[in-house]
């Protein structure tokens, strides 16, 4: 998620192609298939991938207290009401689903973080089924330092969506809209539908 015009995740290039395809395939007003990426068999900084299972273990040892609070809120109020169950774990292993870290990023994973990037998600290992075994979720303190609780919650819910395979949407009311400010910290029924159908 970004403050101005740069995409926050590693899916920036893919978003435009998928957005165009969605209007051709589904037309306005119907489900936007473009914001579900599925199993892409990809472990890079340049493409999203869905998680390997519905039990989403998250290592948050690399987060400061306010970011942990926002992530806990996002897990409890946005992710856990779906078919996905999240758990905070105290240690990370090669099979931990999400490694959440925050830092004052300038250049990480090919992003120019100084241009307004709040956070980014990338897949680091893939299972035999082509799903992501471990995501890294990075939160940029450069911008989060000046934001309040509602922004932190919206950013963490947005980035959690990416760890489960949700891509950006063009609707400004959606939490998965790629630019800040966002209208809500909650996923709408469209995004929840993708999660519940695929997990």
Question: How would you describe this structure to a colleague?
Answer:
The protein has 199 residues and is of the alpha/beta class. The protein has a single domain, classed as Collagenase (Catalytic Domain) (3-Layer(aba) Sandwich), CATH 3.40.390. Helix content is 29%, strand content 20%. A 5-stranded mixed beta sheet has the order 2-1-3-7-6.
Task: Write the SSE topology.
Blueprint (H helix, E strand, L loop, with lengths): L11 H14 L29 E8 L2 H15 L5 E5 L8 E6 L3 E2 L2 E2 L6 E8 L5 E9 H4 L4 H15 L25 H10 L1
Parallel strand pairs: 1-2, 1-3, 3-7
Antiparallel strand pairs: 4-5, 6-7
* SS content category: alpha/beta
- Runs in which pLDDT lies below 50 for 5 or more consecutive residues are 4-32
CATH uppermost class = Alpha Beta
- Estimate the helix proportion, in percent: 25-40%
Short summary of the structure?
The protein has 199 residues and is an alpha/beta fold. The protein has helices spanning 12-25, 65-79, 141-144, 149-163, 189-198, and strands spanning 55-62, 85-89, 98-103, 107-108, 111-112, 119-126, 132-140.
């Amino acid at each position: 998620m970004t403050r101005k015009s740069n995409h926050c995740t590693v899916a920036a290039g893919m978003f435009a192609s998928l957005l165009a395809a969605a209007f051709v395939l589904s037309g306005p007003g119907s489900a936007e298939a473009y914001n579900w990426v599925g199993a892409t068999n990809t472990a890079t900084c340049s493409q999203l991938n869905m998680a390997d299972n519905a039990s989403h273990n998250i290592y948050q040892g690399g987060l400061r207290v306010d970011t942990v609070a926002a992530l806990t809120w996002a897990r409890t109020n946005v992710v856990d009401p779906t078919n996905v169950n999240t758990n905070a774990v105290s240690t990370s292993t090669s099979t931990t689903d999400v490694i959440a870290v925050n830092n004052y990023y300038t250049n990480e994973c090919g992003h120019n973080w100084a241009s307004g990037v709040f956070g980014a998600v990338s897949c680091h290992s893939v299972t035999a089924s082509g799903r992501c075994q471990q995501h890294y979720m990075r939160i940029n303190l450069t911008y989060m330092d000046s934001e309040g609780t509602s922004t932190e919650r919206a950013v963490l819910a947005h980035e959690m969506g990416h760890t489960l395979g949700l891509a950006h949407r063009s609707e400004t009311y959606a939490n998965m809209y790629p630019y800040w400010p966002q209208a809500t910290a909650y996923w709408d029924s469209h995004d929840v539908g993708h999660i519940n159908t695929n997990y």
